[in-house]
Amino acid sequence: MAGSKPGPKPKPKPAPEVIPELEEEALHPLKQLSDRALEVWEEELPHLRKFLISRADVAVFSRYCECIARIEEMEEAAEDQPFTVAGAYGNIMKNPIFQMIENQDKLLASLAHKLGMTPTARKILKGQMKDAKPVELPSVPDEVARRRERLDKKARGH
Predict the structure, then answer these.
(1) 18-30 pLDDT, tens per residue?
(2) Start-to-end C-alpha separation, the chain
(3) CB of 39 within 8 A of CB of 148?
(4) DSSP secondary structure string for all residues of 35-77
(5) Where are the domains of the chain?
(6) How would you class 38 by CB atoms within 10 Å of its CB: exposed for 0-12, middle for 13-18, buried for 19 or more?
(7) Is the distance from CB of 51 to CB of 19 less than 8 angstroms?
């Protein structure tokens, strides 16, 4: 509006102290994860130890791990594939596997952001977590170790 003076900026609301419940079962992976997704869980969980994660994050983190496993599988399948293929009417189109990989990449970026694994998300979390007390997260669940052992035996041909 012409001639009106802006008022004082409102003070930002203080961020709530975010200290999740960290019972031992809070970080167990979802049972339906594939073997490769469980390997990703084991590899990636230490990176999340910098952040406070709660039971609510387990589903998102599980989806993140499954997404990485799916991307790896699709990229392996796409290694010898052409980028373009003939469509149903003879038109040239993007090979559908590359579109599927692109869709999974977008999902992965979204999940990474939700988990605080992107620079923007970390900046937001840093502001919200500045007064939160650090906590030690429980170790990777035994289920991951059991599946890894089974995969190692399978790889050795036992």
Answers:
(1) 444 444 345 677 7
(2) 77
(3) yes
(4) HHHHHHHHHHHHHHTTS---HHHHHHHHHHHHHHHHHHHHHHH
(5) 24-146
(6) buried
(7) no
